[in-house]
Amino acid sequence: MSNNRIGVLVMSYGTPESMEGIEAYYTHIRRGHAPTAEQLAELTARYEAVVGGVFPLRENTNRQVSGLQAALDALAPGRYACYQGLKHASPYIEDGVAKMAEDGIKRAVTIVLAPHYSTMSVGGYNKRAKDKADEVGIEMVSVESYHLHPKLIEALVDRVVSALAKFDRKQPIKALFSAHSLPVRIRESNDPYEKQLLETSSAIAQRAGVTDWEFTWQSAGRTREPWLGPDILETLQETADKEYKQVLSVPIGFVSDHLEVLYDLDIEAKTAAGGLGMKFERIEMLNTDPFYMQTLAESVEAKDPWR
């Protein structure tokens, strides 16, 4: 049975569905190697600290997929059908493509819930999707990035301006833009990830009237190879050394509330800042912000070659 609708595969990193699923999830991230008892205990403790045994994190992605479907329906009624594919949890990327094929979809656009392109992140998602699409006979194109989409920038500027209202504006405020670190070797191939992150940061800072800012990294993996730095914890120390008392965290590399934001920033970085005598606030995440949903929808439509 053929289906004339264009499939839209919405991809993200994935998170376990429950506390019981953490070990399987961690094993998948480690390419089939089970974590040590110590590693598992540490990751479980992080999830406990964030969700307290209840697991709402998965719902963020589900709501974003539903929100994108609604935005696409408003833009082009009846043309697009959204499917979900996760990198490290079910439904996996390949599952999403297989479901499209099962539904008779013949053409599809992929988009990742991450605005910035890297061969190691978005590129990897798109390759997995394309490999499966080739296997099941779906013609597929991919959105690579949308890091300067005007509505994305506007949504982030709104959040920066709102968060700044929580500070004493008479005193200096250091804004720290951040994103997930990647291995340093991405620089060897002129990967656009760093350049795009700085472009987004500059655009937001300029529009929000923020002149005192810098870019830093967070959430580096624990592998033997070097990762991009400095880490936000080091940057916080440097900021305190310069006698700042106020820090605004602007994690532009992330679009929803999940572990890298709720633990790495809200608990770990905030605790570190407090220990250094600094007030630490973070912008709200995009989640299902209407402007973000429109950013995604417009990016999908712009990539659609069958219009």
UniProtKB/TrEMBL annotation:
<keyword id="KW-0479">Metal-binding</keyword>
<feature type="binding site">
    <location>
        <begin position="46"/>
        <end position="47"/>
    </location>
    <ligand>
        <name>Fe-coproporphyrin III</name>
    </ligand>
</feature>
<feature type="binding site">
    <location>
        <position position="180"/>
    </location>
    <ligand>
        <name>Fe(2+)</name>
    </ligand>
</feature>
<comment type="pathway">
    <text>Porphyrin-containing compound metabolism; protoheme biosynthesis.</text>
</comment>
<keyword id="KW-0627">Porphyrin biosynthesis</keyword>
<dbReference type="InterPro" id="IPR033644">
    <property type="entry name" value="Ferrochelatase_C"/>
</dbReference>
<dbReference type="InterPro" id="IPR001015">
    <property type="entry name" value="Ferrochelatase"/>
</dbReference>
<comment type="similarity">
    <text>Belongs to the ferrochelatase family.</text>
</comment>
<keyword id="KW-0408">Iron</keyword>
<keyword id="KW-0963">Cytoplasm</keyword>
<feature type="binding site">
    <location>
        <position position="260"/>
    </location>
    <ligand>
        <name>Fe(2+)</name>
    </ligand>
</feature>
<feature type="binding site">
    <location>
        <position position="30"/>
    </location>
    <ligand>
        <name>Fe-coproporphyrin III</name>
    </ligand>
</feature>
<protein>
    <recommendedName>
        <fullName>Coproporphyrin III ferrochelatase</fullName>
        <ecNumber>4.99.1.9</ecNumber>
    </recommendedName>
</protein>
<feature type="binding site">
    <location>
        <position position="125"/>
    </location>
    <ligand>
        <name>Fe-coproporphyrin III</name>
    </ligand>
</feature>
<feature type="binding site" description="axial binding residue">
    <location>
        <position position="13"/>
    </location>
    <ligand>
        <name>Fe-coproporphyrin III</name>
    </ligand>
</feature>
<keyword id="KW-0456">Lyase</keyword>
<keyword id="KW-0350">Heme biosynthesis</keyword>
<comment type="function">
    <text>Involved in coproporphyrin-dependent heme b biosynthesis. Catalyzes the insertion of ferrous iron into coproporphyrin III to form Fe-coproporphyrin III.</text>
</comment>
<dbReference type="Pfam" id="PF00762">
    <property type="entry name" value="Ferrochelatase"/>
</dbReference>
<dbReference type="GO" id="GO:0016829">
    <property type="term" value="F:lyase activity"/>
</dbReference>
